[in-house]
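Why do we bother with a discrete structure alphabet at all? Because it lets us treat a fold like text: something you can write down, compare, and reason about line by line. To make this less abstract, here is a complete entry for Protein arginine methyltransferase NDUFAF7. Read it the way you would read a sentence in a foreign language you are learning: slowly, and without expecting to understand everything at once.
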Amino acid sequence: MFTRSPATKKLSFFFHSHKSHFSTNIVGEKPVLVRDFIHSALYDPKHGYFSQRSRSVGVLERSIKFNQLEGRKAYMNHLDKIYKRSDISWFTPVELFKPWYAHGIAEAIMRTSQLSVPLEIYEIGGGSGICAKGILDYIMLNAPARIYNNMTYTSVEISPSLAEIQKETVGEVRSHLSKFRVECRDAADRSGWGNIKQQPCWVIMLEVLDNLPHDLVYSENQVFPWKEVWVEKQHDKESLFELYKPLEDPLIKRCVEIVELDKNQSVSIAKSVWSKVFPKPRRCWLPTGCLKLLDVLHEVLPRMSLIASDFSYLPDVSIPGERAPLVSTKKDGRSFDYNSYLDAKGDADIFFPTDFWLLERMDHYCSGWMKPHGDNSTKQGKKRRTLVLDTSAFMEEFGLPSKTRTKDGYNPLLDDFKNTKFYLSVPTHNIK
């Protein structure tokens, strides 16, 4: 089962009884890079998708009692009722499986942390705060008192409304408030972090990577050089079209280099021969937003451990290009997927699959362990231990799967996340 959330596509894509309008102000008079177009389409304060959808992320009134449900059909019917009653877009896994999802993450952190120093946790994009509360609850109940008493948990949240919700959620347990704070800012903005923090810490990102801005590069065939894609208004001021320019943007050039680090001469020759026989245009989506965020995190938190969860695959994507996004909206009570990202002008979600192989390479690149071509400096960053696990494998290792199992043995936490993975990355002094 491939899902955006653990519900069916019918349930989770996206909005019930919510009208929206297109905005022609996503692109101004001057062309913009694709990443800037996507950022505006999603996050513009006036016209962005998330700005117009104040209730895009749901909060369950109470935890689901999985062991009281007969099986998959009963679970899906229960979800259907929740979605219709809540009138929201979708529930995150950490919300649907509270508190067990967050408890699994907390257990993974406890097993790999240096407990001789105070535990520091940062969460990027904390949503409703249910992950923070679940982790704080788990550590309060299961760790030595000194760990809980001396820990800090910082949520870096770009949405002011979600920041307030997080404070309320975590504040349900009074003792958590002395350990928890929300910083309402963009985590990818270096200026918001202040001085470099040398102490060990954890960074959590749950379903953050899929909504980070991406760039697009285009080539006429398999051997022609890449060109960066810009978005420009037509003369009628309504339609948008693509504009292709030589690679000049530093962030795009760095991302292309990371993607192509392993390419060798024999591969290039083979592609040259193939392109002469079957010339074919190429389009490639680049996670430049992720690269920028990792750059900042590795600079300001050089000893961080990272845990991220996201979609490794998205079904029914019609937009062309490697790592292409799904662009979806709700019209007249039904979900609708666009065939072009240019149609998303504040009325649709734009979300990408995560290439976990590429995520690992960017992680090593930003930490300084992997070097760009032409960098002959002797300074070498620290190698990192990394691990990619399917969600089911992660939860079987660190969670309590028995808590999300129905009477007939069906377990949505393990069975319905075939297109999601966890990425764990921890620093090490072993550079061999």
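What the structure line is telling us, in plain words: The radius of gyration is 22 Å. Residues 72-86 form the longest helix (15 residues).
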